[in-house]
Design goal:
By secondary structure, this protein is an alpha+beta fold. The chain contains 19 helices and 13 strands. The strands form four sheets. Strands 1, 2, 3, 4 and 6 form a five-stranded antiparallel beta sheet that branches. It has a four-stranded mixed beta sheet with strand order 5-10-9-7. Strands 8-11 form a two-stranded antiparallel ribbon.
Length: 446
């Protein structure tokens, strides 16, 4: 793969790259409409492919927050056309890495010494490159190590990068008014945390220790003394990325075992420690030869505050979601319904979220749930299409829901997609019992 000798780090330099990308997209539209004039039956697939390629090519040269947002969007396969999902998903673990000279220079700036002065051996070429940093292999004192190096300028450009993608997000999600700032602030805060590698090491050690009891789950050991604000040193873990493993001919038993491990890992984080690995994409998980799940990245951790946790999970209980009075009360607590809503808006959004929550909480209403069930995913696609084409919704203020929804919903949807990739049938009954112990009402379905 081609390497990069430099990355634009100034606001002007990064904006210039995006302007070039915008010009390419403009040309794509001219080509598309010229062809469509000749062939009116032509669909948008070629335009989507060209635009997705040009946008991704522009973002991968910048790296950083803009590329991270593209990666986040790729996790929701119902939100974007397939061409965008396919291209943007490459940001998970397959982008052009920094060249060897730039790696050495960057490492010295961050760590105060060259790699060969710290490690016994250090691979000059990266083994994995993603949106915020890339990984190199090293050894020290007989230990195989993975060294994550943050790209230069990423932490300093978060604000300007988000300013570039903000107009697109406002249009895509129909956000209006000053109230939308809280969502962008939540994303900026999380991205800022992801660039703080000292914080990531602390999170990693805390969560791996808390979750060490979960069967078939492994973590690398982290070395704070060999890490810094922009460098992380951890054990080298051997395995296939989950997305690669999912393409192999694994047995149903193996898929179920790995899926159960994922489910137990996330449920314990949600309800046991109230802090969750909020970046569940395939690049953050490996499958070992022993068919164990390995979690390798804890850059994005979302703490779950009680004022959100309580009403959010109460709506997973059928007798709550189907009780109009309780349901409406929880929607106000979760900021889905607003005090300035008129009767039409209350009725519309109550119906919309009842449909959505009834569907997304299906896994919690059965003792065992099959995440390979095509009917479940068809329902998700149909519901997404229904409301994406709803002209009534476009007229309304899209500022709906607590800011905490951004990363908690992202976590659940990412988890569901990983379980689908594994074709896993998961026992959810332990989760139900845990909720009952926490004081939630019994699930009438059980």
């Amino acid at each position: 793969m081609k390497t990069l000798d430099k990355i634009p780090t100034s606001k002007i330099g990064r904006t210039s790259e995006m302007v070039k990308t915008g010009a390419k997209i403009g040309v794509n539209y001219i080509k598309y409409y010229s062809k469509k004039a000749v062939n009116p039956t032509m669909d948008r697939s070629s335009l989507d492919e060209d635009n997705a390629t040009d946008i991704y090519d522009g973002l991968k040269s910048l790296k950083g927050s803009a590329l991270k947002v593209a990666q986040m969007l790729s996790m929701d396969k119902s939100l974007l056309p397939g061409a965008y999902v396919e291209k943007f998903s490459l940001a998970q673990f397959s982008v052009p890495p920094l060249s060897a000279p730039l790696v050495r220079k960057t490492f010295k700036r961050y760590q105060g010494a060259f790699p060969e002065e710290i490690y016994d051996t250090f691979s000059k070429d990266s083994v994995n490159a993603a949106s915020i940093g890339q990984v190199h292999r090293a050894t020290k004192d007989g230990k195989e190590l993975a060294i994550k190096i943050q790209y230069p300028g990423v932490a300093e450009s978060i604000g300007s990068d988000l300013a570039m993608v903000k107009p697109i997000a406002i249009k895509m999600f129909n956000l209006k008014g000053e109230d939308s700032k809280r969502y962008f602030s939540e994303v900026e805060d999380k991205l800022t945390e992801e660039t703080d590698y000292e914080l990531e090491v602390k999170h990693s050690i805390k969560i791996t220790e808390a979750c060490s009891h979960i069967p078939n789950l492994k973590f690398p050991k982290y070395y704070p003394e060999l890490s810094s604000k922009r460098i992380i040193t951890m054990d080298w873990m051997t395995g296939q990325h989950l997305s690669e493993f999912a393409k192999t001919d694994f047995t149903q038993e193996t898929g179920n075992k790995l899926g159960q491990t994922l489910w137990d890992f996330y449920m314990f984080q949600m309800h046991g420690i109230k802090a969750v690995h909020a970046d569940p994409h395939p690049g953050n998980f490996l499958i070992s030869k022993e068919e164990e799940l390995i979690a390798i990245d804890f850059g994005c951790i979302k703490e779950i505050v009680d004022e959100f946790y309580q009403p959010y999970f109460e709506l997973a209980v059928p007798e709550n979601i189907n009780n109009p009075k309780i349901f409406k009360e929880k929607l106000f607590q979760l900021e889905i319904l607003r005090k300035d809503d008129n009767d039409r808006e209350v009725a519309y959004f109550s119906t919309l979220f009842h449909e959505m929550l009834s569907l997304f909480t299906k896994p919690f209403k059965e003792k065992t749930f099959d995440f390979a069930d095509a009917a479940f995913w068809d329902e998700i696609s149909s519901l997404s299409e229904k409301y994406s084409n709803d002209k009534e919704l476009r007229k309304m203020n899209g500022n709906r829901g607590s800011k905490h929804f951004l990363y908690i919903n992202r976590t659940f949807f990412g988890l569901y997609n990983l379980l689908h990739d594994l074709k896993a049938k998961v026992n959810t009954y332990e989760y139900v019992k845990y909720l009952e112990e926490k004081g939630f009402k019994n699930h009438s379905a059980l």
